[in-house]
Design brief:
Number of strands: 37
CATH superfamily: TonB-dependent receptor, beta-barrel domain
CATH topology: Maltoporin, Chain A
Helix content: under 10%
CATH class: Mainly Beta
Distance between the termini: 57 Å
Strand content: over 45%
CATH architecture: Beta Barrel
Amino acid sequence: MLAALAAPAFAADDTAPADARELDRVTVVGDARDSQSSTATRMNLTLRETPQSVSVIDRATLDAFGLTSVNQALGLATGIQVEQVETDRAYFTARGFDITNFQTDCIGLPMPYGLVNGDIDLAIYDRIEVLRGANGLMSSTGNPSATINFIRKRPTPDLQADAALTVGSWNNTRLDVDVSGGLANEGAVRGRAVAAFEQGDNYLDRYSRDKQVYYGILEADLGEATTLAVGASHQRNRPEGVLWGALPLFYSDGTPTDYDVSTSTAADWSHWDTDTTYAFAELQHDFAGQWQAKATVNYQETEENTELFYVSGTPDRATGLGLSPFPSAYDSTYRAHYADIYASGPLTLLGRSHDVVVGGNWARGNVREVSRYSDDVGPDLPPLELFDGYYPKPVWDAPSAGSDFDLERESLYATVRWNLSDSVKLITGASRTHAQSIGDSYGVSNSSDETKTTPFAGLVIDLAPNYSLYGSYGEIFNPQSELDENHQFVGALTGSNAEVGLKGAWKDNAINASIAVFRARQDNLAEFAGYYPGTFDSYYQGTNAESRGIEFDMAGRITDTWTLSGGITHMQLVDEDGQNTRDYVPRDTFRVATTVEIPQVAGLSFGGTLRWQSQIHVDDVLPDGAPVRVEQDAYALLGLMARYEFADRWTATLNLDNVTDEKYYPSLYWNQAFWAAPRNVSLTVAYRFQ
């Protein structure tokens, strides 16, 4: 079991520029300015024109509810499940499958292990676009789950600035500063700078965080038709007392454990330092005839330095004994270069104008990891109720293991939006991708070489001025390097997504709603199947799974004073034999966020969030081989918000999370888990300079 856990445990972790936006901290959910997305096709289509399920989490929503990290924001997204397996690592799922495609301005490589290490801070982003289903045109490799696209903040031509100070439970403090404006030539050269600083303790014993975020971007109009943008960002995380693994879920007699919410297995010397740097440049030119071309290059570097403390075993119910330590020191460096160039514009054929996108991208990445151990691990742990984090820090003198592999990907893509009539649009396209991995990962070959064409087709029929019927089909694939029982490569994972639905948009796209019926397939996923005889080397087998369900999503300003966003997902998830699989994924979820302005009191507004999910469970075995099941009952989480503009340019926002103090596991993805945060509060005071 430890070997199976250890492999993922060592994991590393374009859209066109957004219109210039005011920095005012307003509580608008689903602003009409955010109702366009190019995540699916590189065409700037409204949500109603896009033949896939798309949600947008805008900056106003992030500010209103104090959502500063990707885990918090995606926890409110329709159909997205945040699998918080440790304090500083998380998986994400959609439609039953892992999300591996995280992009910035539509560009990126799938995460090497499907894990996000550290936390992605949202200070530098204008919004998050969530496209559910396979995104084979723009993300040809990955899973048929979803694509998460982070859209960076852009400069504004006029000077605007704001600052916000947040204080909250467990001595948490955060400072955000955002300055934007023209620098020369009456706004032809403009810039933006963002910084955020956060630190504090935590409800978990010994856990604390210290985070810094910096971002800068310059834009210049090189002429009436050409724009150049360059920028960089850096995030520095220094958490201490981190979890590697989590708490045991059951005692040796099969009864579930029930530790205090604050219980942690972290040693007091454990830490997980991460530094992530991005740099990018974009050049866009508008040609005559409404054609434009855009070239983008990106660089990413993530460095991790850790000293970690894992605890294994099954405790005795009477004594609490039976837990053993497994410390490790882990360092890694992940570097990647991405480049993308495309052209888009109209094409006249058979008397009608159609929309065309043609482009290609190139990516190179490398992963270098070293894990160090100790020959003198030390004694077993006392009962966790008595463990205070003190444990002798080992000398890392045992043999090391690690990874050293390179990732390569090249794609050519093309898509056409055929305007068959004023009310019927057909989108067809394909991506031809070559993906290669060369090297080794913890003693196992990580080499693969796959080339595949992934098609996409979508049809949108306008039924009325505000309603559209749509259907789409897309494919995706992901090379895999795992070996089967016969020492042969398992082969590439393949996946597809088909959906049909109805979309509506009202009030000049200020309100958007959709309902979709979907079927997502994932074939030949490499899953652990055992160990080679006489070794602890794992072998794998390909497994198939399919999810089918229905999804409702909406967002917008319902009235002049009431905004609402949310969604419902219901699905089934079965294996090739028709049996339930991946039971840690809830089959039913509900998300809603709303704000109401009080007309009788100028500047006063209230809001709330509600997250609900159905029951989940995980199956395991006791030390004697008997089966055991751990369940997390269905639960709901309520959040409340109050905001008041108490003076000119001054606002105060109070957020209360987990109002009912629900005790729950945030994930059963692994066979260990920890309790999520209890009731907590934060107060943000913001000042707008311009």
